Amino acid sequence: MILRGDLVHCPSLAQLEVLKDYILEVDAKGFIVHVGPASEPQSQTKLKSCVSPNVIPRGSFLLPTFCDLHLHAPQFLYQGTGLHLPLMQWLNEYAFKAEERIDGDPSLARRVYTRLARRLVEHGTGAVLLFGTIGIESNLILAECMKAAGIRAFIGKLSMDKNSRPTYIEASADSALTATVSFIDRCNALERDTEPHARRVEPVLTPRFVPTCSDELLHGLGRLSEERGVRVQSHMAEALDQVEWVRQERGREDIDVFEQSGLLTSRTIQAHCTFLDAPTLSHVAQKGTAIAHCPLSNAYFSAAPFRLREALDSGVKVGLGTDVAGGYDISIISAMRHAVTVSRMREGARHLECASNDLTPDDRKALSIDWKEALYLATTGGADALGLARGAGQFVVGAPFDAQCIRIIDEGTGAGIGPMDFIDDEMVGMDAWSLTDEIVEKWWCLGDVRNRVKMWIQGKEIARTWNSE
User: Fold this and answer.
1) What pTM value is reported for the model?
2) Do β-strands 403-407 and 452-457 pair in parallel, antiparallel, or remain unpaired?
3) Which of 87, 108, 127, 187 could form a disulfide with 239 if both were Cys (CB 3.0 to 4.6 A apart)?
4) 432-447 residue pLDDT tens
């Protein structure tokens, strides 16, 4: 497959590249084998050898798909409700009940997960790290629905043997570990006959968080991760009531519990981490553990914002998560916008603190991030945190072609698509139109599902113009 058009990606933090009129070739296995300006001789040779290249219309561009590093699949059932409660109470009133319903009703599970998969594709999410439930069968349904949708999905069967509803808990650490091994084997079996490059779903070890897991269970999961090389996901240092619970019950910080259990590794992604200070974040970076930053749910359930700039400066691998349903919006675009907003408020607070102490703010210590850095976190940064194939999240040779086509202007009329208005340019036409950083920023701030018209994962087109359905 050969495509011609404008490409946009973020090779590194704060670096945005707008590649105008490029040729991109994807091989039969879905990997990028050529990227270059259309004017170059090699690109011209590629064009001449192709009967019908895919032309991206002017007014549109290709962007890598988004990565969502933290989403509770069964909680999609009640997305957007119950956010007035503190975390531990919210879990009892909403989360556990919904998860138990999903485990007890396979037809409901399939309806919820089929719709969830559709919404993810609709919002440009090409890879997602999912918390499931404690039941094996419903998690296999989740894996099947994500596989059918064609997106990359990392499926976590929850492990929890304490501090839950009496009817929604695993009987013991041993039974929880046995169920986890069974799930890993059965989930892997879904892809057994699929070539490695084309596999989409993968199991993930998922201790819910320290309050719901005994030390015996956590140590067992740590051994299992080491023996099987399986990824790990959990919540860490998320909310004030959760942190205090762990301190009172365990007499330790939950990061210490995870590390002593062998669960703070380069295979681990921890969500939130809002109560980690800068030195602790440096330790997280040394361990190779990644963090899923969920700014919207943090605003509801954490008493403090995540120290994003400090984490990035410490070398922590960071991506973004929606945290449905603790976060009410399934859109990673929304997560990007909230990440910038929270960081700017942190920077404003720093300036106010300096002013109150008659100090001059040191710009080298600025806490805010900009939209380009947020876009990096949603694409390249998220792919790196997930441990996807080399080059994932970028348009480079050797990377898997996971892309979305963003349409912002109608090529025929020059009018903006959906929420995009270009009032000064509408009478000029497309002859002088050229994609710029400023136009990409406008889409980043205002764009929505109406601007997304195609999506590919591993070179395979999985969606087209769903906004007309």
Assistant:
1) 0.96
2) antiparallel
3) 87
4) 789 999 999 999 999 9
